[in-house]
Amino acid sequence: MSYNIQAAVDAKHNLIVATHTVNHNDLNALGTIAIEAKENLGVDNFTILVDKGYHSGREINQFINHNITTIVADPTPGTSKESVTQPDYFCF
């Protein structure tokens, strides 16, 4: 069995604001921890910075509904998984 540990850190003070230990890959881990971090900080809007393999189109849509701005790199050309992440989700 393999576990994946996630942590969200506040940019101003570098404090951990949310953590998760999960048994799945990064692709489906961002939504839960981002929303939890926003709630723990008690803010109305929130900006997250993530790497290109750490999200899915479904989660990006969820962030829009929760007033979370997402900054994410474009995927490497030719490696985007069309069934998971659509190109129009990369510029918000």
Explain what the structure shows.
- It is built from two helices and four strands, in the order E-E-H-E-H-E.
- Strand 3, helix 2 and strand 4 form a beta-alpha-beta unit.
- About 25% of the residues lie in helices and about 25% in strands.
- With about 90 residues, the chain is of the alpha+beta class.
- Strands 1-2 form a two-stranded antiparallel sheet. Strands 3-4 form a two-stranded parallel sheet.
- About 15% of the residues are buried.
- The chain starts with a strand and ends in a 20-residue tail after the last strand.
- The protein is globular and about 35 Å long.
- The protein has one domain.
- The mean pLDDT is about 80.
- Helix 1 runs parallel beside helix 2.
Shape call: globular
**Describe the biggest sheet?**
2 strands, antiparallel
When the domains are counted, the total is 1
Q: Tell me the total number of β-strands.
A: 4
| Rg from Cα | 13 Å
Structural class: alpha+beta
Query: H/E series, N to C?
Result: EEHEHE
Main sheet: strand order: 1-2
Q: Strand content of the residues, in percent?
A: 25-35%
How many separate helices? 2
- Taking pLDDT < 50 over at least 5 consecutive residues as the criterion, the unreliable ranges are none
Quote the distance from N terminus to C terminus.
36 Å
Overall pLDDT metric: 78
What's the helical proportion of residues? 10-25%
